[in-house]
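Researcher: Sequence recovery benchmark, item below. Answer with residues only.
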């Protein structure tokens, strides 16, 4: 009995450590879902796609977190990522999905696709 209690405690401790590191697993899934060309804003952002610094989340990271909480899961899935593509987390006027397609950072308003207006917009 003593042994199994120790095992449970160890497993719980391990679980806490793993869940504290939002990192590698989520990043792997993210990179698989949104492969970023080398040198793109998205590729250069790495952790900064979801995080401000360390564990602190940016606006896009918070939307990911909210979507995960709504699904009551701690595991990031492709569906969760897709479910927030229509949002514009950083409010730069370009949806997360469009930014990810263009390999810009959906959590940074300064990073967005180069003007994508139709060619025949009136001159300014
Ligand atoms: Ca945006």
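Model:
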């Amino acid at each position: 009995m003593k042994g199994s209690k120790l095992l449970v405690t160890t497993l719980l401790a391990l679980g806490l450590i793993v869940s504290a590191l939002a990192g590698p697993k989520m990043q792997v899934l993210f990179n698989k879902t949104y492969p970023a060309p080398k040198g793109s804003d998205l590729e250069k952002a790495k952790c900064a796609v979801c995080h401000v610094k360390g564990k602190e989340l940016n606006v896009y990271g918070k939307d990911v977190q909210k979507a995960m909480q709504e699904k009551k899961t701690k595991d990031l899935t492709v569906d969760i990522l897709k479910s927030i593509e229509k949002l514009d987390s950083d409010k730069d006027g370009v949806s997360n999905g469009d930014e990810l397609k263009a390999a810009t950072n959906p959590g940074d308003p300064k990073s967005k696709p180069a003007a994508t207006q139709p060619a025949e917009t009136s001159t300014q």
